[in-house]
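Bumping with the actual sequence this time:
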Amino acid sequence: MGGRLALVVGSECVALGELGFTGELATGLYESLTEVGGWRSATDNDAPVLNPTAAQLVTAVDAAFVAAGQRQATLLLAFIGHGVATSAEDFYLLGHDSPAVPNSHNAFHLTQEIRERLNQSAVDGLVVLVDACETGQGVIGAARRWTDLLAQSAGRMEMLVAAGEGPAFSGCFTRTMLSTFHGGLPLRGENLLPADLVDPIAGECVHQQPQYLSFTSGAVSVAHGADPGLWLVPNTARHRDAVSGRSAAGFVDQLTRGLLVTPDVREHLDTIVDAGSHRLRVVIGPAGAGKSTLLAMLIRPSLVEGLSVTPEYITAAVFLTAASSIEAVAAELAAQLSARLPGFAEAAQAVRAHRARDEFDIFDLSVRHPLARLSTSGRRVTLVFDGLNQPPEGTRRLLVAAITDLTRRDDLRHVRVIVGIRDGTGVEDAPALAHMYRIEVGEPAADDIATAVGSARGSGAPADPADWVNWIQTLLAETPTDVEGSHVVSGGWLLARMLLEVASSITDGAVAAGIGLDRIVALRVDAALRGMYSETAGATGTFLSIMVAAGVGPVLPIELLDAALTALGVDLHIARIRDMTVALGALVTRSRPGTPRESLGVTHGALLPGLRSECKHLGAELEDAHRAIVAAIKESPSDRAADYARGSAVRHCLAYRDSASALHFLELLQTTRSADNRDLWAAWVPAFVETLGPDHPDTLTTRSREAYHRAESGDLVGAIAAFELLLADRLRVLGPDNPKTLGTRTNLATYRARCGDYIGARTEYKRLFADQRRLLGPDDPDTLRTRNDLASNRADLGDLVGAIADFEKLRIDRERVLGPDDSQTLRTRNSLAYWHGANGDFAAARAEFEQLLADCLRIFGPDHPATLAARNSLAAFRARSGDMTGAASEFNHLLTDRLRVLGPDHPDTLTTRNTLADYHANTGDLPSAIAELEQILADRLRVLGPDHPDTFATRNDLATRQAENGDLPRAIAELEVLLVAELRALGPNHVATIRTQTTLAHWRGQLVQ
């Protein structure tokens, strides 16, 4: 459904003589529209319709309307050829066989024929282009006879014709259109609209005057079209912009449309550019002061005469919203940098192959490390982050850390960052941003706004212009720092844009009464309702509630909006949604308008309070809107729905306090990489705290998940600190006997043991075991699990005989309670076999490992991870018992199966590869082992993160093999860096830290010798 369909006709009328250019120009126009503009043929033939008879022309138009109506697509009709006006509003397009004096039976009566089809078809907007003589009567007829039908459905139409009452010459209209398509228009937006072509055609075709007509929001206009979705082709003049082709391009269009560059605006731009020596520039000002517009002008400097920068000045830009995540920001910047910065794509590929060793997260991988590799290229890189105050607190912290790295690290001295922050949010005072160069942006002058608005008033100048200036000055003075307050005013150029759209509705009395932004929003909604068909108008409250729930910026995919409306019982479909969007004007912002990948949202946060009031007035509940969006997310299989869910599903669930669903979405968003999951949970903890309170059980759960993934990503020290704080809160809130409290104690003991604090861990395990026996009983699975941990802890402390005895008893109890085939029972048997081998009882160990493998094959089959793990254990035992050949053979077979079953990135697959690399080294093939370990390290950094113990182990192995291969200085340098990282992440008592200290001391001794 949806899409953009085009019918292009080139017609030579025999009765009026050959024109000679219609076929060529129709073919050129069709190719430009389809190949560049993404239009598809509205008929079965992928070509223009050339020299049709009058009957064939009618048939082609019929087919086009039927196709567009069935698909609810946008329809473009273009005609190049002979046209004749016979009387007022009677304009005919002539077919190949039409007479010189036509009628409705032998030619196409443009006004009547289109009217009849509009009455029967539900198109998603109509564009009409006519390159023919005497087209003025067609425009007059369209203005009078099409608009009533369009008004009934709040439809949209753009019409551009070659001439008024006189002739059109030599296809100049279409030729100019095609040349403009090729060269673009530097002063226009991301896409070229029909209205954009009026001036180029008028300037080139001096003997004819093009006529333009637009119908949107229930009104006819000859001014610039109001629907950016009815575009023709992308504007090639915008291809050098940072956001060209990206979702933010539509937002930049809206920011720069009708731009008024005052002296203050120009001074602010010059200040930003002149401060380019500062690595971090922050543009700060109140809501609506024009911060985003200033940054948009830097992206499109051709809009400002004499500005001393080119489109390449801004290398990449992101406009942040409440739905922004660190992953989405990194992906967007990386996509722009890959397209615009020479060498970036290759640098990113190199980073993926050879990871940096010190720090690693998704932003580092996608942006920071590739930029660091280009530090010697001699090219400055400037990144824009607009709206840093917009994302949720957790995401904002990650972004602040990323911006700090970009603007402080020595290997990124070629990078400059410009940030937009709303004043008074506290973000501008973040200590990490203290090195900023601060650029204060104030409100525009009230008289500037009054001048801009005054010309739009249909009733002429106000009775007392001073009253208007004073009123606007009052609005500006009342601009708050908290746009969530109940009475807010946006101020600045946002206020100007709103006033322009409702200027004719604002009376001098309203000005005298001092109406605020909430009332201005209400006037704008009322104006939209007046131009809508009754069915569409009745859905406006529901539509606005979903927009408010989605938030600021073009964030909500249009298909999700459609599904959410359906969930609330409103069946509008995409075409009517676009009608309503256009009718609401500056209240709604769009990205990729008119395409299947369109997204929408509220234009600015300052509008939210007024829109909430309108939702309430129209009977729409915001909680229902949040629920509907969540329902739409659950039902949608699209990639865009999944992307939106990553940034917003949790927020929507929390809006109606469904914290269980919020946790469920977070679990679905987890990846196989603990470092990503750590950042995911960390980003959402503040939202849970804010919505539910710090002591809510689900808030505590989010903290537990963050701490867990912090540990699993390798930051054991940080995880232990987090679990200690969590334990204190769970003891206070839930009590000492709550299962969640006991679970936190288990985690603390486990990670203390992993850090090498075996004695402290044993003390905690014993206390925990006593409490579990008292509360849960001796046979509860959690109690048995703690017995397993106690037995392992005894082995870690060196008492292998005691540990084996404990495992023997535990095996009996687990078989009795859980059954012999339970995974926990099998785990106990695996531990028992391992410690038998470690204690020198190879016969018992071999027998147990072999029986365990046989049982796993019987229970799970050959490809189950547990079976593969049992094969791994048996192969490792063979190696420890001296059967290196048999072990290597089994590990090779195991690697093949793990690659097939688990995939190349599974941690178990990486472990098998690491083991085989060690065997290569032990057999003397050090170069092959080193090459393999380097690749394994790159993969473990990518999959597990830099602080994971397995990653540390590979770095130690690689340094050891490099030393054995004679490269002692390099190996020692790597071990020194590794030791610092392990001390930070694991602490001094962890076995990996101790191993690195021992290895480093050994090779330092060898270097001295």
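The tokens above came from a reply further down the thread. Residues 238 and 244 are 6 Å apart (CA to CA).
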